[in-house]
Amino acid sequence: MLSRTADHLFWLARYVERADFLARIVEATQRLAALPMSYSGTGTEWESALESSGAADGFHATRAAAEEASVVEYLTFAPDNPSSIRNCIEFARANARAVRTALTVEIWEAINSAWIELKRYENSNIARGRYDREELSRFLELVKKTSLDYDGSTDRTMLRNDAYWFSRLGLYIERADNTARILDVKYHVLLPMDEAVGGSLDYFQWTAILRAVSALTAYHWVYRENIKPWLIADLLILKMEMPRSLIACYDNIVRFLDAIAKAYGRPGASQQQAHEVMTKLESATTKEIFRIGLHEFITDFVEDNDRLGRTITEQYLLY
């Protein structure tokens, strides 16, 4: 496969996954911001949305306070935000169009249909910075449905060859990063300094985060207990059964990188790095993670994940 083709497939998957994540972040933040005043903490919910999406620096460079309407506009339709949902769908479609012959009809239609619907929103209230909750809800549902359509079409219609493997690599690199960031931002932005871990505010925030990664039902199935931070960390970091957990993402990353190495005749730096991260996750325990600090563990993981993304690019995607 040409490096150019692999690069387009890799980033197509990343942009679709990122758009889905942003839609979930906006929904989760709306739930937190709508809590009664006695549960609403210090009003940092929309700042947390910017932090978890990695968009805080760009937002504060061009806009004032992190208020609901301005943050929603920046994360959904802002043309000056490279990672806004609008730009993610635009970039995903551009990548898909560049490798149209490498995609199945179903995958192309999932992406192209989303792009057409996006154009219909260009003159909407939310695209113009005028907040409309009902219109926003319909748009976020469209984004999540697009991700499901793309993911399902990829899984059910693509040959298990290098095109499929690079697509899946992009998805799981992005998904691991997103899960890690939303875990980290919970402790360092949302919870006020004078609020006890395990308090009512803590409970509602953790619940919103579980909803953001579609893990609330899974949590109750696995643990059958009230919301507890260490069990959430266990679920989203170390539970192989949870598809968005860090270890589940890396189980797939290792598998697909090994498949590429076998097909191309030899492994390289990316395979070595992926196995090293997987070994760290397999040997980790929740007790050890909280002993060294969740923030420190997540920071190291995000750096490792970013490094692996760059290594994959250098090894396979540069052209």
Describe this structure in words.
The chain is mainly alpha-helical and 319 residues long. α1 runs antiparallel to α5, α1 packs antiparallel against α9 and α5 runs antiparallel to α6. The chain is globular. The longest helix is centred in the N-terminal third of the chain and has 31 residues. About 2% of the residues have low confidence. The protein has one domain. The relative contact order is 0.12.
Overall shape: globular
Low-confidence stretches: 190-196
- Largest sheet features: none
The helicity comes to: over 70%
Percentage of residues in DSSP E strands: under 5%
**Helix-strand topology string:** HHHHHHHHHHHHHHH
- Total individual domains: 1
Overall pLDDT level? 89
Going by helix content, strand content and strand pairing, the class is: mainly alpha
Through-space gap between termini: 12 Å
Give the C-alpha Rg: 19 Å
Enumerate how many helices there are, as a single number. 15
Q: What oligomeric state do these chains adopt?
A: single chain
Number of strands: 0
